[in-house]
Write a structure and sequence with these properties.
- By secondary structure, the chain is an alpha+beta fold.
- The chain has helices at residues 79-82, 146-149, 160-171, 177-185, 188-200, 221-229, 239-249, 268-272, 283-290, 300-303, 306-312, 315-332, 348-354, 360-370, 379-396, 404-410, 414-423, 433-439, 443-446; strands spanning 19-20, 26-27, 33-36, 46-49, 62-67, 83-89, 95-100, 113-119, 124-139, 207-209, 215-217, 343-344, 376-377, 400-402, 427-429, 451-453.
- Strand 8 (113-119) and strand 9 form a beta hairpin.
- Helix 3 packs across helix 4 (177-185), helix 4 packs across helix 5 (188-200) and helix 12 (315-332) packs antiparallel against helix 15.
- It is elongated and about 115 Å long.
- Mean pLDDT is 77; it is low at 150-159, 168-174 and 203-213.
Length: 472
């Protein structure tokens, strides 16, 4: 068999691949010779950008030149590196246009700009270094009173320093020529100091005399433009409206602010939920108490109050106490805290098995109400559950509740329990002598107890208003 040998690649480095054009023809790539013109001329082309504004093309610009402040005369340096240019025009009736060279920071500080001229016949591309300027605009203030008579002299025949002084005096009202020049050509530190003086100063406006001798503030075009651009503030909500919106979004039961007695602030139907109270069976508790048996539950708060509530004969309050026990056991079935402060929720089947003493409808009802429909009980939903528990507890205790047992059930610190009870409008304080006798504790033990009292008028936590710090 004969094998075809591959052609050896050409070692001629001068052979360039030809490019194909339409029709399959090939033409040789054009050679372009690039050259950079030396910076010998005193003047160099200028390339100006106009970021954010539209510059009329019929306005004439005057050119000014000065030696850079950190440069010393040297024969080896070009005209661009040793001097800087400024373009200015006041031909517009209301706006001054100024173009300056802006030095970049970091890698842009070493960036140079070039202009190229290409001759297609000879294939030569000549590059020349250019000046890069940025054109910006400023609103010219309208002179009043004596300022109209004192017209500033022309800057066509003055040096750049004097021209800039007059220009900045026209651009900034009440600013000295020294500060104006410092803003233009000063160091960054001096510029920041001058800007701080001008921004923080609140100087009275110049005043003129009215027709009847009354003083009237002079027209300030900048202030007038700012005020006219401001939106209508009638739609901005008031502080009371903001407070009402904040109260509605807080994780707590909605209180009745028009209540005439503490029992109407948090009605039991609102705390328990629709259809939950009739499902609470209490006959087992009633029979056990009548037979003299002691009922022990997983909650210290509920166990210490069953006998008292059953003996009182208030069936509605007894069902409320049992619903409170369901919330405490559901809270205890939550898993370890998450990063956001919430708790993980067990799988529905595992949750029902863990709460086997309760019907599935009751467990699912609590899950749907306080879990938010997810597998994680967020911090907001967890706070909402705890505030409902606090409101139920203070209702069972006739609006004066010892929070010690509830603190043990929820495994919280006393300072956290204070926040939750204050969130629902309770007043926190140590027990009185009569309350210590009712609780069966002495003075030493009573010092560590805290009593939550729901009183009228209801005082809910107000929205905090962060005030701005005073400038020194």
């Amino acid at each position: 068999m004969s094998e075809k040998k591959r052609k050896r690649a050409s070692h001629d480095t001068n052979d360039r691949p030809a490019k194909k054009i339409a029709g399959g023809q090939q033409v040789a790539a054009e050679m372009v010779k690039v050259s950079v013109l030396p910076e010998e001329d005193e003047w160099a082309p200028i390339v100006a950008s106009t970021p954010g504004l539209s510059f009329p093309s019929d306005l004439p610009l005057k050119t000014y030149e000065r030696r850079r402040g950190n440069d010393t005369p040297s024969t080896g340096k070009s005209q661009i590196t040793s001097s800087e240019h400024l373009l200015h025009t006041s031909a517009h009736s209301k706006i001054d246009y100024i173009a300056r060279e802006e030095e970049g920071n970091g890698k842009d500080g070493l960036l140079s700009h070039y202009l190229g001229v290409y001759d297609p016949q000879s294939g030569q591309l000549q590059l020349v270094r250019v000046r890069k300027l940025v054109l910006r605009s400023s609103l010219r203030s309208i002179p009043t009173g004596k300022e109209k008579a004192a017209k500033p002299p022309s800057v066509s025949n003055l040096s750049l320093d004097l021209a800039l002084s007059l220009l900045m005096l026209t651009e900034f009202q009440g600013l000295s020529a020294r500060n104006a020049l410092g803003l233009t050509f000063g160091t960054k530190k001096s510029q920041r100091a001058i800007e701080a003086l001008t921004k923080n100063a609140i100087s009275p406006s110049k005043k003129g005399r009215g027709a009847e001798g009354q003083t009237q503030p002079a027209f300030d075009p900048i202030a007038s433009a700012v005020i006219s651009s401001m939106a209508d503030t009638s739609s901005i909500p008031t502080r009371d409206e903001l407070q009402a919106a904040a109260d509605e979004s807080k994780p707590r039961p909605q209180p009745n602010l028009d209540a005439k007695k503490p029992a109407d602030v948090y009605p039991i139907e609102r705390l328990v939920g629709h259809g939950m109270l009739p499902q609470m069976t209490i006959k087992e508790w009633q029979d056990a108490i009548e037979s003299g048996e002691e009922i022990l539950t997983k909650s210290r708060f509920v166990s210490h109050r069953i006998q008292h509530v059953v003996s009182g004969g208030n069936v509605r309050k007894l069902k409320t106490l049992k619903y409170l026990l369901l919330l405490l056991e559901w809270y205890g079935a939550l898993q370890s805290p998450t990063k956001g402060g919430g708790r993980k929720l067990l799988h529905p089947e595992k949750l029902r098995n863990g709460l086997s003493g309760w019907s599935s409808s009751l467990v699912d009802g609590v899950t749907h109400r306080f879990a938010g429909g997810g597998r994680v009980v967020t911090r907001w939903h967890l706070d909402n559950l705890i505030t409902h528990i606090c409101a139920l507890a203070v209702t069972v205790d006739d609006f004066t509740s010892d929070v010690y047992d509830l603190t043990q059930d929820l495994k919280l610190e006393m300072k956290d329990m204070r926040k939750y009870f204050r969130e629902i409008g309770c007043q926190m304080g140590p027990p009185t002598e009569g309350e210590m006798k009712r609780l069966g504790v002495g003075k030493v033990e009573g010092k560590g107890r805290m009593i939550a009292r729901l009183r009228l008028p209801l005082e809910l936590p107000k929205m905090r208003v962060v005030r701005a710090k005073k400038r020194r």
